[in-house]
Amino acid sequence: MAFHLSPLLAAVPIWHRLRRLGGPGLVLLGVADNSIIPLTGSMDVLTIWLAARHHEPWPYYAFMATLGAVIGGYITYALARKGGKETMERKLSKRRAAKVARAFERWGFFAVAIPALLPPPFPFVPFLIAAGAGQYSPKKFLGALTLGRGVRYSIGAGLGYHYGSHILRFFNQYYKPAMAILIGLAVIGAVLSLIQYLRMRKN
């Protein structure tokens, strides 16, 4: 079944390029979203849209999205692991750092797997930082991250494949407010990342 290009993904040049790349575009977006600049909701939208196109089997898009997310998440984890607890204290407020640390000490594996599974706008990066700063096992971390993201993007890709026409029709009808929300969330993520970077440089 053929679908017309969703204006939600065509309105911005970067979306057009990522869409044309298909699976590799999901990997690139996943790396950025989980390490450099959080782009809240962008991975879910692109995964669903690509799966709805039926150009490849939907498990392929779920796998590529998970791969990108795991690579990006591991980058954040590795940097925090190298910097230790000082990294977590620099990037998070003391109150938030203590809260995340307590959750991580209590739940361990599931403190990564469950947040990785939850949809936006749940903040996930603090748990990546906590895992690294707390010197959590790399193998267990990768297992938890892969499990959480794998389930999340499999659900998204499956929904895109089975209900693609309805989902794309919704995007086509409400693409302007949807795009405004996505751009707004991306800008917020970029600003917060910049503030954290400047704070780290100052410290």
Explained architecture:
- This protein is an all-alpha fold and 203 residues long.
- The chain has helices at residues 7-10, 13-21, 23-36, 42-53, 58-83, 85-91, 94-107, 110-117, 125-133, 138-162, 164-173, 175-202.
- The protein has one domain (7-202).
- The protein is globular, with a radius of gyration of 17 Å.
- Residues 1-11 have low confidence and may be disordered.
Taking the alpha carbons of the first and last residues, their distance comes to 55 Å
SSE series: HHHHHHHHHHHH
Determine the mean pLDDT.
Answer: 76
Q: Per the principal axes of the C-alpha atoms, what is the gross shape?
A: globular
The tally of structural domains comes to: 1
Estimate the helix proportion, in percent.
over 70%
Number of strands: 0
The whole-angstrom Rg is 17 Å
Structural class: mainly alpha
Describe what is shown at a glance.
This protein is mainly alpha-helical.
Structural key phrases:
203 residues, mainly alpha, 12 helices, 82% helix
Topology:
Blueprint (H helix, E strand, L loop, with lengths): L6 H4 L2 H9 L1 H14 L5 H12 L4 H26 L1 H7 L2 H14 L2 H8 L7 H9 L4 H25 L1 H10 L1 H28 L1
Helix pairs in contact: 2-3, 3-4, 3-5, 4-5, 4-10, 4-11, 5-6, 5-9, 5-10, 6-9, 7-9, 8-10
